[in-house]
Design goal:
It contains 21 helices and 16 strands. It has 497 residues and is of the alpha+beta class. The strands form 7 sheets. It has a 4-stranded mixed sheet. Helix 16 crosses helix 17 and helix 17 packs antiparallel against helix 18. The two termini are 48 Å apart. The C terminus is likely disordered.
Length: 497
């Protein structure tokens, strides 16, 4: 075993209200500057929808992630040979229009316009060129299905649904949507890191956060192509690539990332997961029908003495192991099995997991034309959900419908159990039947309910200490007589105040 630590996240989609507070918090801190106007390291999409950038999930267009070739995997659209062929023209890069042209309004015109018969207006101008533009799209242009003809109907996850199934989803009695917040997944097998010709991208050993060394970045933009989630961006002003850094300066001081700290719905959880790095190649190379199980198997039990011994041999701090034992992410993903990765078929082994949304029940019209929206029990059951399981499986399990159904049945069992506890209008048989189907007992149901609904801040975010003293000792120990560290950084002497 080669046990290492990874900071991981869970987003509970049943609780997301689509307020975009997370996006604004991130934008104000990290991307509110020239060259980053169009960047949203955190964005909230509406599903069904094509997302940001448009159709980012379609790797036939953008060629991101890894593909299986016999007994190995290779980058779809990047790599040494592919990168050399596309060095001067990369057809797999999203263009600005795939994101959106950022704009502002010339509000000053409302005050400086000459007197006339017409009401002056504040025209939209591009934040890049400064010229007036006609607004065509935005980062959340399809919010709440507002752009259904142009966005929702072109969702890539409809590929396995028949034309009739797709069309029926936009009928009144079946129409539904949910929100999908996205940040960098800080993957265990990051294709962006593997694609960079300059070696500018790297994965921090202490917590697995994927970062870009701005000094080494040479604007090849292969990381933009290689990331299947399109969470690496190019800053046109600095000529450098940028991405979500998981607010690591905040993590190092014990604070939650800005998007998580500001989340109104409290849908976000952060914690440490221990994983076996020896299995990464096997997971990335697993057959399609075994890929999800292989990924979940790479995360190990932080209470296992053998795991703890291997982690300590690798230099994982004891406090990090304790944090892993208290991690809410481990409970959602491994203990309860109700959180799944987004598009595991990209083979990057993402560390952001989602609790799928409980969808509203589908109404029906009988043979006599009577509109029926009632059910035999308080909950109609997942078989009557408006979105087909095939759609959710395309998002969260690589097409495994049974896995998604099992998660939704567990969530429904928790609801039924808590209804019995708080209201008491359900029969014991109905409660026991719902819980026995998915192997949940009352104690587990109460634990899921608490962490989902009543968790405190410290329970949602279990952040290990940064151990800054070890970093300082390492830098001092490797500094040579020329004043340089073994990593090539200059040592600057401290000065008294």
């Amino acid at each position: 075993m080669d046990i290492r630590a990874q900071v991981s996240m869970v987003f509970h989609l049943d609780k997301c209200i689509g307020c975009h507070t997370c996006s604004i918090a991130c934008k104000n801190i990290w991307t509110d500057r020239k060259g980053a106007e169009y960047m949203w390291w955190n964005n909230v999409e509406t599903k069904p929808g094509t997302g940001y950038p448009t159709k980012w999930e379609d790797q036939e267009i953008y060629r991101g992630g890894w593909e299986k070739n016999g007994n190995s995997v290779s980058l779809k659209g990047a790599g040494k040979l592919k990168g050399l062929k596309n060095i001067f023209h990369n057809p797999y890069l999203p263009v600005l229009e795939d994101y959106y042209v950022p704009w502002a309004y010339k509000y000053q015109d409302l005050f400086t316009a000459p007197e006339g018969d017409d009401q002056p207006t504040a025209r939209a101008v591009s934040l890049i060129t400064g010229e007036p533009i006609e607004i065509q799209s935005g980062p959340n242009w399809d919010d709440d299905l507002s752009g259904s003809p142009d966005y929702a109907r072109h969702d890539v996850n409809f590929k396995d649904l028949s034309a009739a199934e797709q069309e029926s989803m936009f009928q009144l009695e079946r129409m539904t949507f949910h929100y999908l917040p996205r940040i960098c997944n800080h993957c265990l097998n990051p294709s962006c890191v593997a694609s960079c010709p300059s070696g500018a991208l790297y994965k921090r050993g202490e917590d697995g956060v994927v970062l870009i060394n701005q000094d080494r970045c040479r604007a090849w933009r292969m990381c933009v192509t290689a990331c299947p989630y399109k969470k690496s961006y190019f800053n046109w002003n600095t000529g450098k690539s940028e991405k979500c850094i998981l607010c690591y300066p905040r993590l190092e001081s014990g604070q939650a990332p800005a998007c998580m700290h500001s989340c109104v719905g409290r849908i976000r959880y952060l914690g440490v997961m221990l994983y076996d790095a020896d299995k990464i190649h096997a997971v990335a190379d697993a057959p399609d029908n075994e890929l999800l199980d292989a990924q979940l198997d790479i995360y190990v039990d932080p209470n296992d003495p053998a795991v703890i011994a291997s982690a300590e041999d690798n230099g994982v701090a004891h406090s990090t192991i304790i944090a892993a034992q208290k991690s809410p992410v481990y409970r959602f993903v491994k203990e309860w099995g109700i959180a799944l990765p987004l598009h595991p078929e990209f083979r990057t082994i993402p560390n952001l997991f989602y609790v799928p949304p409980m969808l509203p029940a589908m109404a029906s019209v009988d043979s006599e034309g009577v509109y029926e929206s009632t059910s035999d029990s308080l909950w109609a059951g997942i078989d009557k959900a408006r979105l087909p399981m095939k759609y959710l499986a395309s998002l969260f399990s690589g097409g495994d419908e049974d896995r998604v159904k099992n998660v939704l049945k567990k969530l429904l069992a928790v609801k039924i159990h808590r209804r019995g506890v708080t209201v008491g209008d359900l029969t014991e048989k109905e409660i026991d039947n719902a819980m026995s189907q998915v192997g949940i007992d009352p104690d587990m149901a109460d634990e899921i309910f608490r962490l989902t609904s009543l968790a405190t801040f410290d329970e949602r975010f279990v952040i290990p200490p940064a151990h800054r003293e070890e970093s300082i000792e390492m830098i001092e120990a490797t500094a040579d007589v020329k004043g340089e560290t073994g990593f090539g950084f200059k040592v600057r002497p401290t000065r008294g105040l």
